[in-house]
Amino acid sequence: MQVRGFTLLEVMVALAIFAIAALALTQVAMQYTQATYNSELKTKAHFVVSNEQALMEINQIWLTGLDSKQVTQQGVTWQIDKKSEPTISENVQRIDIHVSLFNNETAKVENGITDSIFFNRRVVQETP
């Protein structure tokens, strides 16, 4: 009577192949998760930039030089750095906005997420 089955070597080779495949799939899943997180963070940062631009326009803020502040939006603390530059029109300025993550525990900026440029218009009051 002859018994057929897998040898120990065959089983170990199959397990090694399975382990390598599982590691590769785990790596792909981690990369997907990181890409999704980065995309979500970038989207949130764009909303922060849009909010800052809208606040400047609504409140008619004319920026001189540099300005930095921290805001908490969407459950995240952000560092907003703004820089103004003149244009050929005295009533229009270029505003560069840089948004970064801000770590409250270390009180330091972690990394930049997005940059944006917009043109701010000074509202000139007309005299009657």
TrEMBL record:
<keyword id="KW-0488">Methylation</keyword>
<dbReference type="Pfam" id="PF02501">
    <property type="entry name" value="T2SSI"/>
</dbReference>
<keyword id="KW-0812">Transmembrane</keyword>
<dbReference type="InterPro" id="IPR010052">
    <property type="entry name" value="T2SS_protein-GspI"/>
</dbReference>
<keyword id="KW-0997">Cell inner membrane</keyword>
<dbReference type="GO" id="GO:0015627">
    <property type="term" value="C:type II protein secretion system complex"/>
</dbReference>
<feature type="domain" description="Type II secretion system protein GspI C-terminal">
    <location>
        <begin position="42"/>
        <end position="100"/>
    </location>
</feature>
<comment type="subunit">
    <text>Type II secretion is composed of four main components: the outer membrane complex, the inner membrane complex, the cytoplasmic secretion ATPase and the periplasm-spanning pseudopilus.</text>
</comment>
<dbReference type="GO" id="GO:0005886">
    <property type="term" value="C:plasma membrane"/>
</dbReference>
<dbReference type="InterPro" id="IPR012902">
    <property type="entry name" value="N_methyl_site"/>
</dbReference>
<protein>
    <recommendedName>
        <fullName>Type II secretion system protein I</fullName>
    </recommendedName>
</protein>
<dbReference type="InterPro" id="IPR003413">
    <property type="entry name" value="T2SS_GspI_C"/>
</dbReference>
<dbReference type="GO" id="GO:0015628">
    <property type="term" value="P:protein secretion by the type II secretion system"/>
</dbReference>
<dbReference type="Pfam" id="PF07963">
    <property type="entry name" value="N_methyl"/>
</dbReference>
<dbReference type="InterPro" id="IPR045584">
    <property type="entry name" value="Pilin-like"/>
</dbReference>
<comment type="function">
    <text>Component of the type II secretion system required for the energy-dependent secretion of extracellular factors such as proteases and toxins from the periplasm.</text>
</comment>
<comment type="similarity">
    <text>Belongs to the GSP I family.</text>
</comment>
<keyword id="KW-1133">Transmembrane helix</keyword>
<keyword id="KW-1003">Cell membrane</keyword>
<keyword id="KW-0472">Membrane</keyword>
